[in-house]
Amino acid sequence: MSGIISAKNLIKIYGESPNETVALNKVSLEVKKGEFVAIIGPSGSGKSTLMHILGCLDKPTSGEYLFDGKLASKLSDNEFAKIRSQKIGFVFQFFNLLPRTTSIKNVQLPLVYAGVGKQERLKRTIQALKEVGLSDKLESTPAQLSGGQQQRVAIARALINNPLVIFADEPTGNLDTKSSAEIMAIFKKFNREGRTIIMITHEADIAKNASRIITIRDGQIVSDKKNRSTRIRA
Ligand SMILES: Nc1ncnc2c1ncn2[C@@H]1O[C@H](COP(=O)(O)OP(=O)(O)OP(=O)(O)O)[C@@H](O)[C@H]1O
Ligand SMILES: [Mg+2]
């Protein structure tokens, strides 16, 4: 059986000749359930492009991509949206929370879309915010929270639907060292609980939290290594 993620020879070209940019140049990759993968590489190397394809936000120009056994290139926009809302959680550099909206309302949004009833929604939302250490900030709006706290709200929102995979694009890119360490501690905890995480980062120190580190350069994977150094097993 293949993993949750199975990509073969992904090519992504933006624009038209002669102004085209080859953002991904034959990327092949397998990720299994329970892995914590960091993708590193210089600016413009294709990290976000790869995440958009793996996260079913965009389709490759060519190549084959299977998410959870389904051939992504064959899916309609509707089916794509359904996969994203049911099986994928996203965490972004700039948090992407609704302003003037409480933590509870931000986190429960995916459950509203999924049609979960009010009582159940509230129960799960409070639990998710507790898991990221924000039980005392349920009614706070993003403006009343620190960057690290805002990112924890975003993580709770990404996890609320119990997704198969969490994709994080520079989740600590906007945070100080202490908040970054807190976010990584949360990711590691969720990974120990069996969740699959794919995280993009510029920073080698942040990548070290993952159990596998993939480096891309000029749209190609140039290294893919197990990171045994920091893997702590209970
Ligand atoms: N929508 C787009 N249209 C045209 N070119 C694009 C588009 N998105 C990305 N590119 C180009 O594709 C290449 C890869 O971009 P990508 O955003 O994937 O890089 P990245 O590794 O995420 O960089 P960063 O670390 O700066 O976020 C870059 O040369 C970029 O300019
Ligand atoms: Mg990027």
TrEMBL record:
Gene Ontology, cellular component aspect: membrane protein complex
Keyword Transcription: no
Claim: Cell cycle is one of the keywords in the record: no
Assigned keywords, A-Z: ATP-binding, Nucleotide-binding, Transport
GO molecular function: ATP binding; ATP hydrolysis activity; transmembrane transporter activity
Domain of life: Bacteria
Domain ABC transporter: 5-234
Family: Belongs to the ABC transporter superfamily.
Designated name of the protein: ABC transporter related protein
Natural source organism: Candidatus Curtissbacteria bacterium GW2011_GWA2_41_24
